[in-house]
Amino acid sequence: MSATTALAPWLLGPLQQALDQVRGHALLVHGQPGVGQFDFGLALASAWLCEAQDGQGAPLRPACGRCTACHLIQARAHPDLMVLLPEALEAALGWSAASDDDGKSEPAGKGRKPSQEIKVEAVRRAVAFSQHTSSRGRAKVILIHPAGRMNTVSSNTLLKTLEEPPGAVRFILSAVGSVDGILPTIRSRCQMWHLALPDAEPAVRWLCAQAEGLSEGDAALLLAAAGGEPGTALDRLTQGLTASSWRGLPAQVAQGQAGAMAQWPLPLVIETLQKLCLDLSAVSVGGQPHYFEAASLPAPPPLARLLAWHKQLQQVARHAEHPWHATLRLESLLDQAALALRRRAA
Ligand SMILES: [Zn+2]
């Protein structure tokens, strides 16, 4: 499958715009999670390297998917493309590069968790890579996703090359969510490129095409559950979240049960409880819920109680990444929730 036939439909327009408009050597593609930053970056890199472009100044088109360069990219083996990812994302994105695994640290497994960071060694390899001339004569592209996973040392290692890039090298950096995690000195050297979330309709159609047997109604619910982020909805679906378990969740939480959340990482549990709290708050002032179906929500408790619950959740969220006592924390979160949602005031 070529990089562009797999591209989500809402990215096709922005891709052509980027091909027409981006002239600088460094681009920072940003947007909400799940909008498709990596796919977009890869499609752009593929188009820049595609050898079916006429190379005589005609407008660039998306990659053809059939030329040698496109085949090399599909095989993760194009000598002029370097993709930097945290180890933890390689499998999920189907990208463990054949071209840059020399000098890599020991493979994950045997108890060692795959790294969430883009390590300084990888950035050093990218800097060295940028200094060689293009092997196939089109360009050289370095794709860094998500750029916020570079720590300060890695970012500073990249900075000089980003400032004075040698020759034909082009950088595509991505930001998933806020760009705040990327050093301002890096951001200021990049052209910013925003990817907007798609409308619900194309996102629902896309979700149905990705997951066999998924009905449009269930896809719409899972999309809403993910705050309109299609990639996030697909991830949750892949991890086993179903529309029916999402529908059942509010009633279970009101009874202090974890339901579908029993095995979820704590940050996701907290985010979900926050969504429930927001939806109930909306309903209690006569509004519409955003994340859950109105019919699946319990009767909202008094607003003051919801506000207090909201504050409690905000406090826990600040420490959500803390690994200690995850089970205990889940229990206390559910106790809190049940107390907030109980039928009668104490
Ligand atoms: Zn091609």
Helix and strand element order: HEHHEHHEHEHEHHHHHHH
By DSSP (H or I, 4+ residues per run), the number of helices equals: 14
**What is the number of strand segments?**
5
Helix percent band = 40-55%
Can you give a write-up of this model?
This protein has 346 residues and is an alpha/beta fold. 44% of the residues lie in helices and 8% in strands. Helix 12 runs parallel beside helix 14. The radius of gyration is 23 Å and the shape is elongated. The site of zinc ion has 9 residues, from helix 3.
Short description:
By secondary structure, the chain is of the alpha/beta class.
What are its keywords?
346 residues; alpha/beta; Rossmann fold; 2 domains; five-stranded parallel β-sheet; 14 helices; 5 strands; 8% strand; elongated; disordered N terminus; binds zinc ion
Task: Record the SSE blueprint.
Layout (H helix, E strand, L loop, with lengths): L11 H10 L4 E6 L5 H13 L18 H7 L6 E4 L2 H4 L29 H11 L9 E5 L7 H12 L5 E8 L7 H4 L3 E4 L5 H11 L5 H10 L4 H9 L4 H12 L11 H19 L18 H15 L8 H16 L5
Helix pairs in contact: 5-6, 8-9, 9-10, 12-13, 12-14, 13-14
The structure holds zinc ion.
